Amino acid sequence: MAAPADLEPAFNEEIRCIEAEGEMTYVTTFERLAGARARTEMLRRQLVHKFGSLPDWVDTKLAQADGDQILVWADRVLDETSLQAIFRP
User: Fold this and answer.
1) Contact 83/54 with Cβ under 8 angstroms?
2) What is the maximal distance between C-alpha atoms in the chain?
3) 3-state secondary structure string, the chain?
4) Which among 76, 71, 86 has a CA at the least distance from the CA of 39?
5) Residues with Cβ < 8 Å from 70, sequence gap 6 or more?
6) Which of 2, 13, 76, 88 is the most buried (most CB within 10 A)?
């Protein structure tokens, strides 16, 4: 079955649009790790600014955390008044 010749360009354009909607930007492992490292470093800088020198246990927690946990802690920096409160379970 074939589309009428005058409708084929519009049909082809619609197909391209549908295909483009399904495409996702590929993020390399390097880019993903760089983004995670940047978030962790930003949180560390905020903690140092607010609390001064950080104990070793904070660096350990930061090194072991995933991106979601870093975001939770970053939100807590705004409201909490101690490191223990920020890093509570």
Assistant:
1) yes
2) 73
3) CCCCCCCHHHHHHHHHHHHHHCCCCCCCHHHHHHHHHHHHHHHHHHHHHHHCCCCHHHHHHHHHCCHHHHHHHHHHHCCCCCHHHHCCC
4) 71
5) 36, 39, 40, 43, 62
6) 76
Q: The whole model's pTM is what? A: 0.63
Which tokens belong to 73? 């802690």
In single-letter form, the type of residue at position 14 comes to E
* Nearby residues of 11 by Cβ (< 8 Å), 6 or more positions away: 3
Q: How far apart are CA 51 and CA 83, in angstroms?
A: 8
